[in-house]
Amino acid sequence: MRTLLLRSVLFLQSQQVRKIVATNCETTTIMASASQPDGDPPLRYRVEAKCSTTKARVGVMSLRHSDVDTPVFMPVGTQGTLKGLLPDQILDLGCQIMLGNTYHLGMRPGTEVLKKVGGLHKFMGWPKALLTDSGGFQMVSLLQLAEITEEGVKFESPYDKSQSMLTPERSMEIQNAIGADIMMQLDDVVKTTTTGPRVEEAMHRTIRWLDRSISAHARDDEQSIFPIVQGGLQPELRKICAAELAKRNTRGYAVGGLSGGESKDEFWKTVHLCTDLLPENKPRYLMGVGFAADLVVCVALGIDMFDCVYPTRTARFGCALTRRGQMNLKQQSFKTDMRPIDETCDCSTCKSYTRSYLHHIVTIEPVACSIISIHNVAFQLKLMNEMREHIKADTFPQFVESYMKERFSDEQIPQWIVDALAAVNIQL
Question: What contacts 24+ positions apart, CB below 8 Å, involve 65-68?
């Protein structure tokens, strides 16, 4: 009898905990962490080294599927595939985490398939960590197909013209089915060049949608939500949003709504402000940024995570990434150039293929996309690893100076980079 009574009490307590979790955001992290069989939450972050001059730091995110060293660049595999690359090839490059897109995966293959196969990790054969975009960016990229209300976003499918409603709850449902280690809340995204009351409306709606996302999240013991700081280019709105999101005590935070047409001067100042506002003991993710010089600057400004389609997209146009910028392999100057893309790179592309060979097949043979994508992703990952090593050695400012001199050896360093780095005590 006592045993039955005890079980009843424990069951009622567990239901009470679930109810609290659904309504109290700050409690979510605490209760979910305590409910783990091994006592660990699904994301643990520790800072291992800090630059003594800038805001750059090295950390480790321990996720369910792998540890992730930060600062990190995350390649984008929108529909469960990095275009032109096999999962084994991505693993060979040392990639610890990559992205999928909630909206597109929700459309194809859809949640029912993802649930039946056990999530995206199994579906695509990827053993490391995954992060999923909430689908919010499609409000901008598919704006002509979308209608935004307080309920959510009504989309016309670019695949079959059918209508669908993406709400915070539906976004969570899809992401729970995907099983990504890190999930993004559905946010109200407007172009950075937007002005007027729409910007403030989107910022406040993003906060409301975060609360709905947290309430709808069904796998908090396995997956972590990152809220997204919005507010356009208005510092006061960014401050309000960051303060509200920090109250929810989530396991990490993202800075959204940038790299959408704003000036570089506005860009870096917004990043600098947001890293000052967000908690120091949580990872900070700058969404949609992937140009190498931008990565270096934003690491100095205190960002830990980045993603962008740029490395693989530019590969499809026959462009390789180097320390001096893009190398357009379509140019006639490479017709008989028997050197690798980068003589200092040890990726399989640079070990095996010449600029001349690639010149003759880029944008013609599909395999060229794969060959160049391998190098471009390797380039991004190597750059992040270099920065981590220099931060650990506390020689990051010297690395930044050296990098910028090489990157802009044939031109003047852009003033926005000079100003951004001066803000964190690096004088170029």
Answer: 65/121, 65/127, 65/128, 65/129, 65/130, 65/181, 66/96, 66/97, 66/127, 66/128, 66/129, 67/96, 68/96, 68/97, 68/129
Interstrand relation of 129-133 and 182-184 (parallel, antiparallel or unpaired): parallel
What the block records as the tokens of 272 is: 């600098």
The structure's pTM equals 0.89
What is the Cα–Cα distance from 232 to 375, expressed in whole angstroms?
Answer: 34
Decide if 203 contacts 231 (C-beta within 8 A). yes
Q: Is the pLDDT of residue 1 over 70?
A: no
pLDDT in tens, 106-147: 989 999 999 999 999 999 999 999 999 987 776 666 667 788
Q: Verify cis geometry, omega within 30 degrees of 0, for the bond prior to 279.
A: no
Query: What is the DSSP track for 212-255?
Result: HHHHH-S-TTT-EEE-EE--TT-HHHHHHHHHHHHHT--S-EEE
Place of tokens 């830990």: 304
Please report the pLDDT score of residue 58 as a whole number. Answer: 98
Catalytic residues, by residue number, are 133, 307
